């Protein structure tokens, strides 16, 4: 098919180092322009990544008639307003997670999608990776019995006051940045919505952002538990436990694009990992796969595997995590 022509609004690190290079490897995506609030920065990014056009404002990029779709990696507080502006300018939108700062704000994107007829997709790349598709296949098949628990961990160390993740007024903090991942994959595996949420949220005294959060999500048939932190040793892992076995995802979220990934399937007959069997997945780039799926929906009119309504539901869980952290009790989703 003819590649979908993308413009990128912003020069965020994730765009420069991960998403743009991955999409440039796709036969279905073509990055034709990039914009920044500073022309020199946009030009430097364009030169580094081999992008033809550089714009000094987001608005100028959105008015380019050659651009069909926009990738939005801006700070969290700009996800909704700039995605709406892109849709109203006639562009489809692939927007970084979290799609919004609340479920109510995310609903504004539903209105924009329906008003403009343009696709708007939250960029949860993990759901494109074969290791996660396989994990869900194993759960669906009953390979681990009945799914009862999804346990996730995700942390890194970042005390840089200039980093957007440490700026509370623009949507910084661990839950928005990485806590959203164990939430989305638990919903992906249970294929249901949690009923209620409990959480403990610790805030940084200087940044006022959440730096350590533990949460319990009660699903109709089981539970999901996770912790996330912006001030811990870098670590990530997911355990999926059923009545007859478990699945371990070794690198669940930042799956490497340059080496195979592994999951472990264990019937529990031996302590530790002695009874676990390894499944290995060929080298893929989950950001390339994400771009392919979005481009296919744009070009061929196929339904997105996870529509915008799913993003609203995920934001409802994030909202409940924050409410529970304030109230000290279970909060309904």
At the fourth level of CATH, the homologous superfamily of the largest domain is Dihydrodipicolinate Reductase, domain 2
Number of helices, where a helix is a run of at least 4 consecutive DSSP H or I residues = 9
- Structural class of the helices, strands and pairings? alpha/beta
- Element string (H = helix, E = strand): EHEHEHEHEHEHEHEEEEEEEHHE
Give the domain tally. Answer: 2
- Which of globular, elongated, flat, extended, rod-shaped describes the shape? globular
How far the N terminus sits from the C terminus, by CA atoms, comes to 41 Å
Major sheet characteristics? 9 strands, mixed
Fraction in helix: 25-40%
Number of extended strands: 15
Major sheet: arrangement of strands = 14-13-12-11-7-10-9-8-15
Low-confidence stretches: none
Overall CATH architecture of the largest domain: 2-Layer Sandwich
What CATH calls the topology of the largest domain is: Dihydrodipicolinate Reductase, domain 2
CATH class categorisation of the largest domain: Alpha Beta
Could you tell me the strand content as a percent range?
A: 25-35%
